[in-house]
Amino acid sequence: MSVVTKVVLQMNAKLGGELWSIHIPMKGVMYVGIDTYHDSGSNRSVGGFVASMNDLSTRYFSKTTWQESKQELISQLEVCTSDALKEYQLLNNAYPERIIVFRDGVGDGQLLAVKEIELSSIKRALSKLPKMPQLVFAVITKRISQRFFLKQGSRLANPLPGTVVDSKVTSDALFDFFLVPQHVGQGTVTPTHYNILEFSTNIQPDHLQQIAFKLCHIYFNWTGTIRVPAVCQYAHKLAFLVGNHLNKDPSPQLAHFLYYL
Question: Quick check: pTM over 0.85?
């Protein structure tokens, strides 16, 4: 693919184009990505919140929040979630039946704080709906030391993309799993670790793992798979742009565009 083609694709995506999509049989699901950016030259940190607005996960709503410098946890998620639910209802004439949240950028030592502050904020927003949606909340960690190998005869190779490890090396106290999201041409592939803090749903763990892998395919800046679900990467790009360049909230008119790609 030429440089010109890539630039035109990015322009298309920023203006609202749907470059490609994935098929997930489960309907009525809103996928949410959350990340935080810390600007070393500012006294504030910015949180990025991105939520899918359709079943194909090609339309999104975004919002930013501000907190004290170096503060990782986002205290305004109740407002962000409520605004996303209102937009979803306007576009689909119904509230989502399930909400799957992917939180990036927090370490294992902050899991309890995330559960008490961020997860509680999202639940308060959901409690205001006529019917409480099913909720899944996953914390994603990319910087890990674990590596997995596939034995092929006398040789070791990288596992295939989509490989899931959810036993033996996982926690006894938490619901967690490792997902190999992509293929690498050289070296050892790094899996992504998912810690599930809330699993109030009737879907099976295997289905959640498949959904997480599928969502790694729809990041419009890259035609292959990325290490995290696309909503997480979009939230990261949003927080970086606003915190590093804009230094203020974007116009609400841009909330449904991927201008931060």
Answer: yes
